[in-house]
Specification:
With 84 residues, the protein is mainly beta. It has one helix and five strands; from the N terminus they run E-E-E-E-H-E.
């Protein structure tokens, strides 16, 4: 498992739900730009992240589409796929 630190842009508003046990969980859709621009485009990676508990509840109103956040993502699992 890896740790990723950087500046991320939110692709949509945070989606907050409550688990069956009553714990808050917020799902985030983040884009991470990296590397040098090629043909006017900078490579990017979309990441789905979650916040749990009190953090999910208190931060979700501020986590809206287009906002940039600085974050440390722990236990990052990477999967690659190609769209058709």
């Amino acid at each position: 498992m890896a740790t990723l630190t950087g500046l991320f842009t939110l692709g949509k508003d945070a989606d907050v739900r409550v688990t069956q046990s009553g714990e808050n969980v917020a799902t985030l859709s983040l884009v991470y730009n990296y590397g040098k621009k090629q043909d006017g485009q900078q490579p990017s990676q979309w990441i789905r992240a979650t916040l749990w508990g009190a953090r999910a509840q208190s931060l979700s109103p501020y986590l809206t589409k287009g906002k940039q956040i600085s974050a440390v993502l722990q236990d990052v699992h990477m999967r690659e796929y190609e769209s058709n």
